[in-house]
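Reopening this ticket.

The earlier resolution said the output was attached, but the attachment link was broken on my side. Pasting everything inline this time so it's all in one place.
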Amino acid sequence: MKRFLAMLLTVAMLGGVLTACGGGGTTPPTGTPAGSDASPAGNSQTPSAQTVEINIGYMPNYGGMWSMMTAIQMGYFEEEGLKVNLTEFQDGPTIIAAMENGSINFGYIGQGAHKLCVQGNATIIALSHISNGDALIGGPGISSVEDLKGKVVAYSSGTSSEDILRNSLAAHNMTMNDITAMDMDAASVVTAMMSNGVDACATWSPNSLTILEGMEGATKLTDNLTFADTTVSLASWIATPRYLQENHDVAVRFVRALFKAMDYSADEHHDEVAKWSSEQAKLDYQTFYDERGVAEWLTGKEVVDGVADGTVKGYYELQQKNLLDGGSITEEDVCPVEDYVDFALMTEAGTY
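Inline output:
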């Protein structure tokens, strides 16, 4: 799966983007310019900077924790003069709501919550990974998407759960009107599915793995790779436009620490990451370790190089097109991705 990124470059990108979004925006770089002498990975770019306390919102799965926990355990946040406080959430929209009320400074989101970035609620400051952790799962007697007609399907609105459900239905000329869609939180989706309270569900890892391994007769109907020729499922780190305007340097230091962590753990050290993450989330180690294969884990260098050559921009353009086609956003929401993805900040943070 490691070169899954190159395949997406052959997909037609969203052309002729329309009106500007309501928030986001690219901030001007203020740190070490690209091409100048920079410290090697693992050395702080801001040794004399005042220590800043930041609040991070995360989700309790491998994807939501891999770079964050590596940055904590390897001392990369500390090197950047950042003292971190962690708060666990179950989904991206809730994290964004917490950011808007000021209790969270930086947050992690999966595919579905990106629609709120397009709509101006938050700005993307770092691409984390390309996911294959979402799945549409049928219960006993459900072996195809077509079998879902008239059936009860659990999902979590505004998240990647809704995304994979809508994409799966659309691929079979179906809509949400063809099923009885039951909107519930992520934990309730698992409970409802495992107790045979619903006929099928759309969810993400580790919930998808839990259901597939623990429920007799459960069948994976689709996952992100089912649509790899036409869609991309991204996970990102975000902040509010207001916070970025007032704390640009802090954001650069935060992303730089993440990039160092991604360099360390993208291709190896999965056992360490699973251990750190499971201990923080107080969940089973094996559950986290089993998630190591559900995404394209990117290094910080891959993200920075992808920003430079336009690859990362292409991902977010394709994502926006998918959100539009799936009905998660409207034509009025469509805008240049630069309005809500801070490519300049990623570039600045990449000088390490």
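Reporter confirms the inline version is readable. The CA atoms of residues 56 and 106 lie 5 Å apart. The chain has 15 helices and eleven strands.
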